[in-house]
Design a protein that fits this description.
CATH topology: ph1033 like fold
Radius of gyration: 15 Å
Structural class: alpha+beta
CATH class: Alpha Beta
Number of strands: 6
Strand content: 25-35%
Distance between the termini: 29 Å
Length: 155
């Protein structure tokens, strides 16, 4: 999954605490079984000429939590403190051998590219469906549905 980062403070939180969060209303539950999260740094939030993906991490576990249960969030979010979120617990953040740039300034909300497409891409556009996948390449690894805790958030 390609997920946008709010800004430098959010990126520092991900580095420090090792999790990425998404409002439950933003993605379908079926989309939470991802193998990795790649962090998209929007140009507007990072004072850069173009947005970029520099880092990614393996997803170790996915759970649901209320916003107030997610440590370190000091910026406003969608809804209130009782808004449910998916929490993606991450392994070590890894630097890409070459960043994936967004020279066309395409809108990036959440994207779900196959792992091989992600490994080959030089631009955000190449993560879309315009570039064919290499024949014989296995599909991206997915976490089993059972890896996502589906319990309701605590009140």
């Amino acid at each position: 999954m390609i997920g946008p980062v709010r800004g430098p403070e959010h990126l520092a939180l991900i580095h420090r605490l090792g999790f990425y969060h998404v409002p439950v209303s933003a993605i379908a539950a079926a989309r939470t079984g991802v193998a990795f999260v790649a962090l998209y740094e929007p140009a507007s939030r990072f004072g850069a000429a173009t947005g970029v993906i520099r880092e990614y991490a393996e997803v170790l576990r996915v759970s649901r939590a209320l916003r107030r249960e997610l440590p370190g969030l000091s910026w406003p979010g969608r809804g209130d403190a009782d808004t449910p979120y998916y929490r993606f617990d991450l392994g070590p953040l890894l630097a890409l051998p070459r960043p994936i740039a967004n020279p066309e300034r395409l809108r990036v909300v959440f994207r779900f590219p196959a792992a091989e497409r992600f490994r080959r891409a030089a631009t955000i556009r190449e993560l879309g469906s315009a570039t064919p996948d290499v024949p014989g390449t296995p599909p991206s690894r997915r976490l089993p549905r059972s890896a996502v805790r589906e319990e309701e958030p605590r009140s």
